[in-house]
Amino acid sequence: MKRVGILTGGGDAPGLNAVIWAVVRKGTKRGLEIFGLKDGWKGILKGEGEVLTPQDVEDIQRTGGTILGTSRTNPYKEENGPEKVKENFKNLSLDALIAVGGEDTLGVANRLIKEYGLPIVGVPKTIDNDLSATDYTFGFDTAINIVTEALDRLHTTTKSHHRVMVVEIMGRHAGWITLFGGLSGGAHIIIIPEEPFDLNELCEEIKRRKEAGKDYTIIAVSEGAIPKEGQKFVTQEEGTDAFGHIRLGGIARALEKEIKERTGLETRHVILGHLQRGGAPTAFDRVLGIRLGLKAVDMVLNEKFGYMAALRGTEIIEVPLEEAVGRLKTVSSDLWSEIKEVLE
Ligand code: F6P
Asked: Per-residue confidence at 158, pLDDT binned at 50, 70, 90?
């Protein structure tokens, strides 16, 4: 019997448990033993995990988070990390590994395959939807539905008070959640990292709306948005994580202050934060997670190491991991122009 490890790394995304459910059910049926590693790459570095049976994953496809736990551990930042991973592959008798993650987790997988010859296949996940080589990542649909619901709710209170509401949305340096969530939730102004904004123009637009009788404005702004003038709105925590990322956040608060001062209008801000990652996945994300998990088992059985399961159109296909981790998928200027035209 072959033993196959599975780990979930990076920020959690609704749909992870659907992948695990599918891998355990199909893998077990096909004669594999599935070994769940704890907390992403940390689990394999420490040799921590346990065998998962179909009973262990009963009904989890409907739930958010990850039963395996997750972390932002980077083996390449640990002393002899990659060597330890290789050693524990042997100690845990793993014949293959399914790594479920975003650019960081899959970037590590790609290096371990190339530099240490480890038999790994990838499954893409992130609410940010910024992975190349796949049309959508699971977690994204859930996130934009949460943003939509939040904006729907903010409409009623903002309208009643004739206010400006600045809503900060996750997604790091990609504007997908803000653009799709903002569009669907009826944001009047959308600001994404791909298109640096001009603070003066933004305030003029808010004033124009007011003069035109539209006495409330909802602004959806990405946490990673940057102003044209080069003013720093992005608040930065001390230091970075193991993958070199700063923690974004605070732009909505900064914009609230600027807008209030420059327009004289009553302004408030809301940071949606981790609400966007929490709770049960949408039906779309459950099914996508399950289909990717099923494909990952096929890829292990066919020894397609160095590849990642991906959604292309309506098909689940295999793509080289390298294609997925080479560059971030961001909002194109064509798509942005198309949407901006109808917002203005
Ligand atoms: O990558 C997913 C994500 O939710 C980003 O949108 C966000 O910037 C980041 O993770 C937050 O990370 P953490 O949960 O470590 O604060």
From this structure: very high
